[in-house]
Amino acid sequence: MSLRYGCFLVLVLCATGAVAQPKNTLKKEAKAYLAANHYEDAIRTLEQSRQLVKSDEESRFLLAVCYFQLNNLAQAQQLLGELTTTEKSPYPECWLYLGKIYHAQQQFARAAEHYKLYLRTLRSEDSNRRMIIEEIRRCDNGVRLVFGEAPAVVENLGPQVNSTADEFAPLLSPSRSSQLYFSAVRPGNTGGPRDKHARPDEQYGQELSDMFTTTLEGGAWQAAQPLHYLLNSPQHEYLCGFANEGQVLLYYQGWNWEKGEIFADTFQQNAQRSLRTTPFLAPARGNAGEYQLYLAADTLLLFASRRPGGYGGLDLYRSALRNGRWTAPENLGPEINSAYDETTPFLARDGVTLYFSTNNSSISVGGLDVVQAVYLPGAARWSAPRNLGFPINSSADDAHFSLARDGFTGFFSSARKDGQGQRDLYIAYFTKYRQEMELPVGAASVAVPPAPAVVQPPAAPPRVVAAPVSAPVSAPPLAAAPAAQWSVSGSSLSGLGVPAWLAEVAGKARQYPTDYLVLTGYVPFQGNQPLTVQFFEAMEQLQEYSRQLQQQGVAATRIFLRTLRSTDPAFTVAATFAPLTYPALRPAVPVLGQTTRSERTAASDQVLVYKVQVVSVQKAYANAALDQQPELMLENAANLPYLRYTAGATPTFKVAEGLRRQLVRDGYSGAYIVPYFCGVRLDKDQARTLVEQFPDLNEFLGR
Fold first, then answer.
1. Contact residues for 430 (Cβ-Cβ < 8 A; gap 6+)
2. How does pLDDT run across 358-376, given as a tens digit for each residue?
3. Domains of the chain: residue spans and CATH
């Protein structure tokens, strides 16, 4: 239960107790169940007496509160409506809970009216006035946001994953996009129900949190399974995050949420496990309840803390791993933090886009809302947090937001009243690709800023320089400059040393220090295995060439690798130095090898083309349907761990959009369009500098 609703419940119990003493043992027992969040038990207890249910005002009000907590808004609203119309002096909290019901239904104006009715019953010195005023402010925010454009379609993960209990903190595996981890407080958890002192208590106790996992099979999330019994214990276990590309799981363990420890697990096989656990040695202090964290690139730690010196409530802090040591935690500053709670941070792959949840009533529409802020390098500060709006946010607590690497999918937990239970897990399908999830070419990891209170973006990739004023307004789809090419065979360079031609390419790279070096492997199709697999094997050889070039002093950030289908009988490699400006294309690079390819006619070799990214992988990917796509290409920036399959090579964005829609219909729901200049992938910033010469890029930038 959130602190916000916990305060409301305490307020209700105090209010009913002040009006009249319990009439009988049943009412006392029902109140005890209500205080312990056992709402169904409270209802069953009250319903044992027909008189209490029909004629006792306090009992009927307690029933309404229980129905509200169990997401049965219609029954709660009916009872509260009857109480406010039939009783001469109904409990003031009836207006409060009617306001909460309208709030949950996004009827913000009616909710504010009922909050104000309740506010009028409070004395000027009542500490609850501030809480109600903030709810009215949230309603006002909701009125302004409810008609905004929805950025995504949101779905509940369903009864196989969610229950009538409490599910939260979803984390998609970094190494398996079909596996989701989460935490839950639900019946059957290890250790059973316990009281606030962690002693077993079958009657009024609550289960403590365990960790679970579910997998996506056939388009449906399967029944959730608990993690290993040596991970889940009678204590709370809470999933914090991952390290080492998903090979290490970080989790919190403690008898309560204020004092515990953070550990690291390496997913050992059951037979290899022991009772010993590995502490996570970082500045986030489990013994101070600092378990809401995010670890970026294993070098940057963001976490929520109530430590002294903050701005109030939970604040977000950062610490960087430098030379094997974590730096002292630094507050992210007043642009991010406030007098309210800021928690559950998530940093996008671009290193500058931060998502987190806050209950700041100046931007929230209800409880914790997911917001986004962007670090502005030029101004050396963060942008003002922006509410993601509906349907990501609701009138309840929305938190633990994260984006999948595909850039189209997000996960979060929410206590919204149309869910299965207290909090449920949700998936968001964004209508537009989230560009912040594209790791910029040349960015090896999240950079650590030297200045305090900010998260510095990664080193910027080489920028495309705008063409001079005298450049032509548009450019015909000319073929790229001829490349230096060599014919090679075999699938391994083992024992061959550094070929002479490769050393010459490294020398040429030093002559063109600002250009990308594009290595293209032309793969002859052989029917004995899928083309996608052949591309992957060819990419392994290109990666070996890349490693040798790096040993010769060529920066990994400058090397771009790709494989294309060829009609030639032998596998060949071409090296091209891709310029960063137009029309100042490089003259032909001298042929350094003894054998050159015939003239290339592939559409992918044009100056500017649009391709559609279909899927990102880290291992061989066999897909016969993908083999049939036109201009299939596998690419890799030499400093990145994953590979991308793209299809098509069209001169206009409109044609590429037609291919993208077809791929989506064929089941590739994450397909999106990317422009390429002289064979090198462009991000939006680079594309903007080429708009004058290639006006069609406006279509890409405006999507």
1. 151, 152, 407, 408, 409, 410
2. 999 999 999 999 999 999 8
3. 3-145 (1.25.40.10), 152-193+204-268+275-437 (2.115.10), 484-701 (no CATH)
